[in-house]
Amino acid sequence: MLAFAAFALVLVSSADPVALFNGKNLDGWREASRDKALLAGKTEAFGGRFKVIDGVLVIDPAVKGDLYIETEKTFPGDLRIIIEFKPGPKCNNDVFIRGTKFDLVPGGKEGMNLKVGESATCEIVIKGDVIEHRLNTESVRRAKAKPAPTSLRIRAEFGSMEIKSIQLLP
């Protein structure tokens, strides 16, 4: 009976969401650059291009540069990633996983239902070799996913963006 209870606990906890952004600092992230500098314990990356302010990961457009941060871990198999964010003025930033780029651009091809200054949800679903991008629950694109595990990358290209949470759901 005790073994069954322990097994049931493992099943429940393995389905729980995992926070990829803790709201405090950049633990679990690194600069996606040649030296891949770890960001553990830090609240800024690339001179403030990415920074944690009041529990939110902010892409600051005042700091110039087409720069990326990525998770230290890679993600194999089927998964769901949910990103709660708010695009700011001139937002043209991206998320990458398994060789696929997801645009977070209000009014863009995939972001027709995104509005500057309004909270939104980006959901990435990988099942088998199919990857799907959803914005505010609406499917905006499906593509073939690369099978090899990759990190999750966030690209600061243009404009501002605030990220409230990033959750991994197995």
Quick structural overview:
By secondary structure, this protein is mostly beta strands.
How would you describe this structure to a colleague?
The protein is mainly beta and 170 residues long. The chain has one domain (18-169): Exo-inulinase, domain 1 (Jelly Rolls), CATH 2.60.120.560. It is 8% helix and 45% strand. It has one helix spanning 2-14; strands at 18-19, 29-31, 44-45, 50-53, 56-59, 67-71, 79-87, 92-97, 100-104, 120-127, 130-135, 138-144, 153-158, 161-169. Strands 1, 3, 4, 5, 7, 10, 11, 12 and 14 form a nine-stranded antiparallel sheet that branches. Strand 4 and strand 5 form a beta hairpin. The radius of gyration is 17 Å and the shape is globular.
- C-alpha geometry: globular
Number of helices: 1
Distance between the termini: 27 Å
CATH topology: Jelly Rolls
Contiguous runs where pLDDT drops below 50 for at least 5 residues: 1-13
Overall SS class: mainly beta
Number of domains as seen in the coordinates = 1
Q: Tell me the strand percentage band.
A: 35-45%
